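#struct-help
A.M.: can someone run this one for me? Single chain, 136 residues.
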Amino acid sequence: VLVGKHASPEKSIVLGAPSSSDRPNNGRDLPGILAIAAGALHGAAGPGGVLGVMPAVQMRDVKSATIYLSTFFLTSALVMGCFAACCATLGQWLVGSGRRGSSRVFRVEAGSAFLSIVVGITWLALLSIGKVGVGS
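D.P.: on it. Structure tokens below:
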């Protein structure tokens, strides 16, 4: 609050910082909301969601089941967030900074692509000889 030195209270000017509700959002939160929605959908669709819900279904007490599911959801989100932060930190460390940063970026990307191809070929080879798949 700013008040003139010699001004009467009726003639004083009151200034305040605009609150977040005063500023237009302009859709800046949409990517974050979509990321959370996609993560929740993928989490519910995978086996972790099913395995997390099954014990809660067997519980007879609604309060215990609610506590269990809430804890499962929060710890899953926390662990996934920590894992993503570790991956980002590792990637940033691998890439580094400085004059040769772009060369290191290319090497990390090429190495990741190469490993993806190796895993895919290995998976297809093991699938073709019957080492992985349904009933193995």
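A.M.: thanks! The mean pLDDT is 76.
D.P.: also worth noting: The CA atoms of residues 34 and 40 lie 10 Å apart.
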